[in-house]
Design brief:
The protein has 219 residues and is α+β, with helices and mostly antiparallel strands. The protein has two domains: 124 residues, no CATH class; 82 residues, OB fold (Dihydrolipoamide Acetyltransferase, E2P). The protein has eight helices and five strands. A five-stranded antiparallel β-sheet has the order 3-2-1-4-5. β1 and β2 form a beta hairpin. α1 crosses α5, α2 crosses α3 and α2 crosses α5.
Length: 219
Amino acid sequence: MIRSLIIALCVILTGQGLYAQNARETKLLDKMCSEACAEIEKQDYSKKDKLSDIEVKLGMALLPSFSNNKDEIKSVWGLDVNNPDDAKKVGEKLGAVMVYKCPKFQKLAFQLAGDDKFREQIMEKDETPATPPAGTESVAGNIEKIEGTDVNFVFVKNDDGETMRLMWLDKCPGSELLESYLGGKKNIRCRIEYRITSVYQAKTKAYQPVKVITNIIEL
């Protein structure tokens, strides 16, 4: 299971492990991230550690957040943490958040993912290599508001009553709907496609994931 988690993290750090989140996912991932980061901080990492030692320590630090939240993981994603394939999927989701929110984890994970021999070794030993997720996600719902100064953010409420914030960065197919909303047209229902990228924020001095609109279709 530990090896599967590290493989998933290597996928994330090559830019493939990006995920859209709804409110329940965000709450669960934030909780798991906080727990995992606390465990990583407790670990003693030495410059003399071999990569295999770091792998084991990092994996052991992540495991409690899996076992502590296994029921909610099952409820939110329908995944069983005792199943290696499911555990890998959870690892990808968790790692995609931790790489931005846990500096010590980021440093160690980059160290592992950046070692070619290590990556080849773990990929050879894993029977089911991680499959990269689709690069584009979408949300359907009603436009609630558009806010911003230099950059605008579009707030969309889906059918479950959850609100998602998306960045309106440039002109894209269907962006005239957003212009119509700003012009006074209301009750616009649409499906918005977006990609997730990372943006450096001076306030936090870190890169943060942002959903950038790529296409808008009126429903």
